[in-house]
Amino acid sequence: EGGVVYFTSASSSIFFRGGGTTYGVATGGTSSSITVSGQNYTLLTFTASGTLTVTKAGLFDVMVVGGGGGGGLRTFSNTGSGGGGGGAVMQQTMYLAANATVTVGAKGAAQTSGDTDGNRGSFSRVNEFCAGGGGGGSANSQVMISAGSGGGQIATVAEGYLKTVALISVNANSGGSGGTISVNLAGGGGGGSTQAGQDSVTSTAGNGGTGTDVSTFIGGSALYHGAGGGGGSRSGTGGTAGNSTGGNGGSSAAQGSNATATNYGCGGGGGGVTQGGAGADGVVYVRFRV
Question: For the chain, which terminal residue's Cβ has fewer other Cβ atoms within 10 angstroms, N or C?
Fold first, then answer.
């Protein structure tokens, strides 16, 4: 009998008769109708953790975006701090025959305590399919790592130029470097899901790395998730957020801005000498053909 064998793991498969693989049906989150490349889908958007209720077993296209990291805050030694890293953006088609647990990663909250690294974002997942949260921007040259993108970095005279490295390389990138206190008064940009954060140059902070355009998955005009936040500068210009969707870094001692809530998974801006900006929460998208 003709058909298609769909492998769910290296040792398990499902046989679809005749017409090949079929999409399932499910409910949960916020439902909408979309068209991508001429194909009609039902899109379920989860902005909070919940349950994907499967009413018909089959294939589902899934995109998970981790929470964005917050920008750092440094008030000591006249040095701006690093921008927050963007959350990872992961996509996969999976077979589901039963309800699935959906976890939406939280943002790294705004940093208001002096000389403190930014707060990390947390992971998003559907069952065991995960996307890590972004790392917090550095305030004291400690390496902030995450399963998402790394937060931006600063450095002391003794430590020189350092980069904050993402814990994994899948849809995650390193944060940019800041300079030494005696040479450079600005922090690096946070890494984005598709690009590393930029290094600072003299008193100009690094820009955040670019994120992922999710319009190819959910339809509509360009929309970026997982961009890095800009670094902060004590006496110069703050870095710009990746794709202008994360938080901008603080300029001339101003606070770093928060990532816009609907720019899911983006990092917050690094502070000059005041507040480091918050990242944006993650999101989970599930779609199936209709």
Answer: N
Q: Cα(first)–Cα(last) distance of the chain, in Å?
A: 26
Give me 256's structure tokens: 């770093």
Residue 193 region by backbone torsions, left for phi larger than 0, else alpha for psi between -120 and 50, else beta: alpha
Task: Convert 162-181 to b/e letters by CB count within 10 Å (16 or more is b).
Answer: bbbbbeeeebbbbbbbbbbb
Whether the pTM exceeds 0.90: the reply is no
Contact 75, 286 (CB under 8 A): no
Query: 290, exposed or middle or buried, with CB in 10 Å at 0-12, 13-18, 19+?
Result: exposed
36 token code pair: 């991508």
Per-residue pLDDT 10s for the chain (290 aa) are: 677 777 767 777 777 776 556 899 999 999 999 999 999 999 999 999 999 999 999 999 999 999 999 998 877 666 678 889 999 999 999 989 999 999 999 999 998 877 788 898 999 999 999 998 988 888 765 445 455 677 776 544 444 344 555 544 456 677 777 755 556 678 888 889 999 888 888 888 889 999 999 999 999 999 999 999 998 887 788 899 999 887 888 776 678 899 999 999 999 998 877 788 999 999 999 999 99
- CA–CA separation, 28 vs 101, rounded Å? 11
Q: What are 95's strand-pairing partners?
A: 59
**Tokens linked to 183:** 């040479």
Residue 86: alpha-carbon gap to chain centroid: 3
- Find out whether 127 and 99 touch, Cβ atoms under 8 Å: no
